[in-house]
Design goal:
The structure holds two protein chains of two kinds.
Chain A (H helix, E strand, L loop, with lengths): L8 H18 L3 H26 L4 H59 L1 H5 L2 H35 L1 H22 L6 H40 L4 H11 L5 H17 L5 H30 L3 H42 L1 H19 L1
Chain B lengths: L5 H6 L9 H9 L8 H8 L2 E6 L4 E3 L7 E7 L2 E5 L10 E2 L4 E2 L3 H4 L5 E5 L3 E7 H10 L1 H23 L9
Antiparallel strand pairs in B: 1-8, 2-7, 3-6, 3-8, 4-5, 4-7
The chains are: A mainly alpha, B alpha+beta.
């Protein structure tokens, strides 16, 4: 399938504006967007398995049902394991959390003290004391004011996550049929363009989600290996958690970095350089991500210019906050493909003339 | 422009839409699907798009980007090529014949304008879906490809011999 030539300035502007408008709307319905995104990601992961089963001679419907059932079993088993682990380790985790926060606080104070000794202006500002007061205030307030809303928000999200299996089943079983019946309603003149649009959308989404998973794998490997070298406990799990958090551009990476630095500060309270090395590791992997992995995986597959990617991320964050950051690139990819197709149809006079002529023919036959 | 008519919505028996035996028979009668088993026909049917063209309606024009082939189920199509090799030749396509098969392989621009000379029912096979079929089910892919190659060689031979009636399977 040949790619479209890059869109013109007006098409690009319209695509950016529509993407921003959609981001604004979608942030109001994250309860729907998140399950759809999760379902799409899982769908593109398991689709090759389903195709392999069909290749082995299984009927499409049977293969779809089998793959869906396997996915449900894996998910249910994982959830059960996580639930049991949480019940068993809840007490330990609570005390660990306190330890990590205290270690992070100590690291911050130590760093502020060192800064005060090197830069006199910080000493006159009482940097260490101010940081200590702010952190105390933040941790106390967090427990009292933020924890309950976060917990309630997660409870509100849980029912919507139950939509994920339903969406996956529908995608595995009926996506081809749905496409076929939508195409059926398209007039003959635009029929081939409509098929092309669907094929391109499918390719873009598949490339995005497969690219994202590949990126996660690369990030996990690099971070895991780095943390192994630094001697941090559970390096692969930490690497994986940080890589998954990085699905939220910038914000996720910062949260992942703070998580690992806190653990390093707790595990090695005497060695100030270990958290610093963790920070350096994160910055290094971030740079590798931005300049090597991301252009090689998602960027190349979505055919989005790096400058445009950054612009869309900023616009997404401005318009829709964290949701905007997460959705900006995939949504821009989808709207670009639709925009390019529509601009081709709108600017193709021959095609529009053919549509009008066909309509006249249909009307005249109906009148006869 | 993109309005879905109530009639079409009625035709969309979306969930649980099973193809009937008559449709399978029609597909089986198309030469490129002759060799396929019942199960394979069902797999191919999922990829085919049925289109109905009124008399005088243009299917595609010369120079249009080609994205797939059309197989005539009933009715008749006429090609109107500008190429000097095909001048003075009658290019009518009846039931079972393929139109636009070259674009299945290279998405090259269409080489002729094709018009329905009577009300024609076709099934279209899109290039990207055909490629995925080749990857997904090699048995079907091989059988269909052999039939398409046979059609192509037949047409090439007739062109070389400068026969007036080119398409026949």
């Amino acid at each position: 399938m040949k790619p479209f030539p890059h869109p013109g300035a007006i098409t690009l502007l319209v695509v950016i504006l529509i993407t921003c408008a959609l981001l604004f709307l979608l942030q109001k319905m994250t309860w729907f967007v998140v399950p759809v995104l999760l379902a799409l990601m899982l769908y593109y992961c398991v689709r090759p398995v389903m195709r392999a089963l069909v290749d082995l001679g299984m009927r499409h419907k049977t293969a779809a049902k089998l793959v869906w059932l396997l996915l449900q079993i894996v998910t249910a088993t994982s959830l059960l394991a996580v639930g049991l682990l949480t019940v068993a380790k809840a007490g330990t985790w609570q005390s660990d959390l306190g330890r990590y926060v205290a270690a992070g606080q100590a690291l911050l104070l130590k760093t502020a003290g060192a800064l005060e000794r090197v830069v006199p202006i910080f000493q006159s500002m009482n940097l260490a004391t101010q940081i200590d007061q702010n952190v105390h205030q933040l941790t106390n307030q967090f427990a009292e004011e933020k924890l309950l809303p976060i917990f309630l928000q997660s409870l509100r999200w849980l029912p919507s996550l139950l939509l994920v299996p339903y969406f996956i089943y529908f995608m595995l079983n009926d996506s081809d049929r749905l496409k076929k019946y939508i195409v059926k309603s398209v007039p003959n003149a635009f029929f081939e363009k409509a098929l092309l649009l669907f094929a391109r959308l499918d390719t873009s989404l598949q490339n995005y989600f497969q690219g994202l998973l590949l990126l996660t794998l690369l990030d996990t490997t690099c971070l895991g290996l780095g943390l192994v070298v630094l001697g941090i406990h559970n390096p692969i799990w930490l690497g994986l958690a940080a890589a998954v958090l990085a699905w939220i551009p910038y914000v996720g990476s910062v949260i992942g970095c703070i998580l690992v630095v806190l653990i390093a500060a707790t595990d090695f309270p005497e060695k100030t350089w270990t958290p610093c090395l963790c920070l350096a590791l994160f910055l290094g992997v971030r740079a590798l991500d931005d300049f090597v992995f991301l252009p090689l995986t998602i960027g190349r597959k979505l055919r989005v210019h790096p400058l445009l990617s950054v612009l869309m991320l900023f616009l997404g964050a401005t318009v829709a906050g964290t949701t905007g950051l997460m959705l900006a690139l995939p949504l821009f990819g989808i709207v670009s493909v639709i925009g390019e197709t529509i601009s081709h149809v709108v600017t193709d006079r021959k095609l529009r003339a053919r549509y009008r002529a066909a309509r006249q023919l249909v009307l005249s036959h109906e009148s006869v | 422009m993109w309005a879905i008519t109530l009639k079409k919505l009625d035709e969309m028996k979306f969930f649980g839409a099973d193809i009937n035996a008559q449709k399978i028979e029609v597909l089986k009668s198309i030469p490129i699907f002759h060799e396929l088993t019942h199960k394979e026909i069902l797999d191919v049917e999922e990829l085919l798009h049925e289109r109905i063209y009124e008399k005088d309606e243009i299917i595609f024009e010369e120079g249009d980007p080609g994205h797939g082939i059309f197989i005539v189920v009933s009715g008749k199509l006429r090609a109107d090529p500008n190429h000097k090799l095909l001048k003075n030749t009658v290019l009518d396509f009846g039931p079972g014949e393929l139109v636009g098969e070259l674009s299945l392989f290279d998405e090259a621009p269409r080489t002729a304008k094709v018009v329905a000379i009577e009300r024609t029912v076709t099934v279209a096979l899109f290039q990207a879906e055909f490629s995925s079929l080749l990857l997904k089910n090699k048995s079907i892919g091989t059988k269909v490809l052999v039939e398409i190659a046979r059609t192509l060689s037949c047409r090439a031979r007739q062109l070389l011999l400068q026969e007036r009636h080119v398409p026949s399977l």
